[in-house]
Write a structure and sequence with these properties.
This protein is an alpha/beta fold. It contains 18 helices and six strands. Strand 5 and strand 6 form a beta hairpin. About 7% of the residues have low confidence.
Length: 433
């Protein structure tokens, strides 16, 4: 055991004193914070005015459309000014562009003139309304945008036209304007406050940041274990060290030492985050407020699953390092580490929307995905106690099995040079070691 700690201390001291450790410790939070602030700032910016020409022989329909678009814009602005809703979900209402409607009567050269206006940028699109062919039928609508990417404007126009046509039908049936407004008033559901789970939006942001940190650190420091083994194989230091230290002790020391560096770095980041949370610092951008929200449960389970995830992937990385002789060979095999982590990243959207779905519950119990997915479920969902315990047991058992296999590959692989072993050779290593 003494040799394990000597190797671990050597790995830890060598890496923590490097300039790269200092740079990554400072720059990664700065870059992540910059992305977060930038996305919030861009999302809070007011959308530019969009000018749309409405071509219709029914002038009243075009005017009603303009009135409805203005009413929708006012409702959006009023919702954004609602302080209670803004605090519960600062991005519940997406900023909508202000659409300016110009009513135009159709003529022989109207379409050609509008196409020229589109090319010159005088208008951003035009809506051509063809009158209904039958008394009880609806008109047909053809929207021509300046850019094919302006689908949001098309959706806003469709929503406004639906209400305009419904109002027209209600008026024909003798419904007064006040009753029309009551019938078409949108339903608003206010999120309850004071829940023990806290502000959901802030929790999603905070846990997503920790999720990304766990993903990044596990991947980087897991690969660092493999690179450290390759460096020492290349310099033949192993041949001297193995005269006094068993291969298993050397592998364990490397995994513990490199992992301690990762824990130190993450600890510094979390200490900074807790300082911000303790100081009640919030982001105020575009009238929205986003508080830093980290609970003791989130932090504890973060470290638990971070350690399990690191041990799982670092053990695999140690085997890859023992089987390869250069960085180029390692790059060909590192997808064994990257793909499961990338899959967890792809599942992030599903976990945010449905953290307690059947798919999320099953995948969170699969050991390669457990550290990231179950941590997210514990932080945002409501997993049962047996699910958390089972995830810890399955991951721990998997780590023990991987370490057993890796130690036998490591014992022979660290002294093997030349061609990378194939699968039958690796199976022989496991049999004879």
């Amino acid at each position: 055991m003494r040799n394990v700690w000597l190797i671990a201390h050597r790995e830890y001291v060598e890496r923590i004193r490097t300039r790269g450790f200092l740079i990554t410790t400072v720059m990664i939070p700065v870059i992540m914070g910059g992305f977060l602030l930038g996305s919030i700032f861009l999302g809070s910016r007011t959308a530019p005015d969009i000018r749309i020409a409405v071509v219709s022989s029914d002038t009243q329909l075009a005017l009603d459309l303009q009135t409805e678009l203005q009413r929708q814009q006012q409702q959006t602005d009023a919702s954004a000014m609602d302080t209670d809703e803004s605090a519960a979900n600062p991005h519940s209402e997406k900023k909508q562009p202000n659409i300016i409607v110009d009513a135009i009567d159709p003529g022989p050269n109207t379409r050609a003139n509008l196409d020229k206006d589109l090319e010159s940028g005088d208008i951003d699109g035009y809506l051509w309304i063809t009158p209904a062919a039958a008394p009880n039928a609806r008109p047909t609508f053809l929207y021509t945008p300046k850019s094919s990417s302006e689908r949001s404007v098309k959706n806003l126009l469709a929503t406004a036209l639906d209400k305009v046509l419904i109002r027209e039908q209600l008026t024909h049936r003798g419904i007064v304007a006040a009753d029309e407004e009551t019938m078409l008033q949108p339903v608003q559901i206010v999120a309850a406050t004071g829940s023990h789970r806290g502000d959901h939006t802030s929790a999603v942001v905070s846990v997503s940041v920790l999720f990304f940190v766990m993903y990044l650190v596990i991947m980087l420091y897991g690969m660092n274990v493999a690179r450290s083994i390759i460096d020492e194989k290349t310099s033949r230091i192993f041949e001297i060290m193995l005269a006094t230290i068993r291969p298993e002790a050397m592998m364990a020391g490397k995994i513990i030492g490199v992992g301690a560096v990762g824990l130190t770095q993450v600890g510094i980041w979390l200490a900074a985050a807790l300082t911000l949370a303790g100081a009640s610092i919030a982001l105020h951008l575009g009238g929205d407020t986003l508080h830093v929200s980290l609970t003791a449960t989130q932090i504890i389970f973060f470290f638990v699953y971070f350690i399990l995830g690191y041990l799982f992937y670092a053990s695999i990385a140690a085997a890859l390092g023992a089987m390869t002789n250069s960085e180029q060979e390692l790059q060909q095999l590192n997808m064994l580490l990257v793909l499961p982590l990338l899959f967890c990243f792809v599942m992030l959207g599903t976990l945010i929307s449905t953290p307690d779905s059947t798919l999320a519950r099953v995948l969170a119990l699969v050991p390669p995905f457990t550290p990231l997915l179950m941590y997210f479920r514990v932080s945002l969902g409501q997993p049962k106690a047996w699910e958390v315990i089972l995830s810890l047991v399955l991951t721990s058992a998997s780590i023990i099995g991987i370490v057993w296999v890796t130690s036998r590959i490591y014992r022979i692989g660290v002294l093997m040079y030349g061609k990378r072993p194939n699968l039958p050779e690796i199976l022989r290593w496991l049999k004879y070691s």
